[in-house]
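job 3f2a | input accepted
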Amino acid sequence: MRDRPLMLGLIGASGTGKTTLTHGIVRLLGAHGVTPINLDDYLRYSRAERAARGLTDADPRSTDLDRMAADLAALRAGQTIEKPIYNHKTGVPQGSERVAPTGLVIAYGALTLTPPVQPDLFDLTVYFDPAPELYRRWREERDVRQRGYTLDEVRMAWPARERDIQRYIAVQRPLADVVLRFLPGEMGYDLQMWLRRRALAFDVVGALADAGQGAAVQIQSVAADDDGLPATVINATSDPALERLSEGLRSRLPVSGQVNASETLQGTHPTLTFAQTLIATLLLQRG
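job 3f2a | predicted structure (287 res):
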């Protein structure tokens, strides 16, 4: 029996899909066994204060990294924390809440692996790296619909945000065990996953073969990926074979949540469903 929770760390710029993937894993594994924690709640300044200081939300100076690192270490040790709350629609800090760890803690944010946080705090880390044209569209749609921005405001802020994404967020990618990339495809979104570092120990070929691998997935090993790391590269396209493969993986998960093996994640794109299920499988195999 584990004496501490499993820790999954998700890293990526705001709007890359971290929250969506987290919700999918919660549905797969059960809400009572998963503690999701949004690390972007550790922003120390309101939206107006950041603007006055000339800071973006990607700039580490906007985030209370010391408190974030201490809270993550406490959760890892099985302790309850007092986590800040940030209203991302109004752009204002809003009190705090008590958070107790369960069997799995999913910590997701833009600066998840920024010091003083150390990668070894997590059992598995995933970096979100969607194709630039997809990311820009997703960010614009999310900020207008959910964050209260106008489209003109989002586009005016884009150069500074893109600059700081490259300065402060993209530099975390070489530290991640998995890189998750969605690209435009003929039938929606195509998916590319790079398994590196600790994820290389995962028998992805065997797992997918047991689940009924179809033509929708291709696997190859590379000596050096875009970060110069040895990697297993998984390419997936959206077709019925991929949905059946995800069902096969779900049927083999040691725990289950709200989604049965014969069901689909309602409203979820097939490649996203596959990514959620494979990451859950990989994480639980490490545990």
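job 3f2a | Residues 257-267 have pLDDT under 50 and may be disordered.
job 3f2a | closed
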